Hints:
- With 236 residues, the protein is α/β, with parallel strands linked by helices.
- Helices cover 30% and strands 25% of the residues.
Amino acid sequence: MPPRLFLPGPLRAGAIALPAAAARHVQVLRLRPGAELTLFDGSGGEWRARLLGAGQVELLDHATVERETAQRVTLALGMPANERMDWLVEKATELGVAAVQPLTTRRSVLRLSGERAARRVAHWQGIAVAACEQCGRNRVPEIAAVLDLATWLAQLGESTSGAAPQRRLLLSPGADAPAPPLARDESALVLSGPEGGLSDDEEALARAAGFVATTLGPRVLRADTAPLAALLRLTA
C-alpha cells in the first residue's frame, strides 16, 4: 500500500510542492522519484499521486472512497492527564470519532488555558491527522478549543435552534441502563468525565442541558477507556 499523507486542501490534479512537514516525511520514508503516494485533504476521497522529486508530487486521479462510520459521534471529554489524552485522541480517531471537545471540569488534573491550551489543541489535531494517515480515514476529526464544562454547556444550549436531532449521552457509573447502538446516519454527543468523574453539580448541569445518563456496565472504566467503549458501543 502506498504511503498516505495529509495535505491542506483543496487538492487538484497536477504538480504541486509538498509542505515542509510532508517533504520531511517523504525523506524519512526514503522515497525516490516515481514512488506512488496517496494524498488526502480531509474533504473526502483521496488522490493517487507520484513523487517527482525536489519536494514535488503530481496528483494523478481522485477516488471518492469513504471509510467513515455510518453514525456521527462527538466525544466531549474531561481531559485525562499526562499522555492519556494523546492516546485517547489517536484511538478515537482510528475508531471513527467525528469530533472531540476537550473540557476542563472540577476534578480535572489537566488544566489548560490561553496559549498553552492552543498549543495542546494543535498538538492533538496533529495526532488526529497522523492517525488518519495510518488508518485510512480521509476525513480528519476536529479537535475543538478547550472550554470549561459550564461554558460549553451554555454554548451548546444556544446553538441548538434548528439543529438536527442528536442524542446527548452522559457516561455515569450510577446510571441504570446502557445506551443502545445508534441507527445508521444517527448522531450522538457523548459527555465523559476526567479521573474521578464529574461532580454531582456537573452531572445536574448536563442533565438540565438534555443529557441522559447511561452506563457502560458494572465495571468502572478509566477516563481514557470509557469514551472509547462508548464509541464502540454506539457505532456497533
